[in-house]
Design a protein that fits this description.
With 108 residues, this protein is an alpha+beta fold. The protein contains two helices and seven strands, in the order αβββββββα. The protein has one domain.
Length: 108
């Protein structure tokens, strides 16, 4: 199951960018990875809205791909969907997260 890898890679990027104690933020931690991928991480015990108004359940991550909402995941699993096809979307998102993590390490 790659969904746990997706959650883990998102956490890795958040930490590589220096984010800590995100449960103390007033809402989700929102990160633009690149022109295609954005995510909102809710580290709160209650549902929190993104800056765009989407509800993100507790301890979950909401993903946007090319501006479209494509899914949610948490440490237990999740679901991605995409206008057109979902084939390879999870792998593609993980590859974008890996590239961002490497880029962050290289610039440190």
């Amino acid at each position: 199951m790659k969904m746990n890898e997706l959650f883990s890679k998102t956490c890795d990027l958040s930490m590589a960018l220096g984010h800590q104690k995100i449960n103390q933020l007033p809402r989700c931690l929102e990160i633009t990875v690149d022109k295609s991928l954005q995510f909102a991480f809710n580290a709160h015990k209650q549902t929190v809205k993104t800056s765009e108004g989407e509800d993100v359940p507790p301890f979950s991550i909401f993903f946007r791909w090319n501006g479209w909402p494509v899914g949610l995941c948490n440490a237990s699993g999740g679901c991605l969907m995409h206008p057109g096809t979902t084939e390879g979307l999870e792998d593609t998102i993980i590859a974008h997260l890996d590239a961002a993590i490497e880029s962050t390490k290289a610039s440190a």
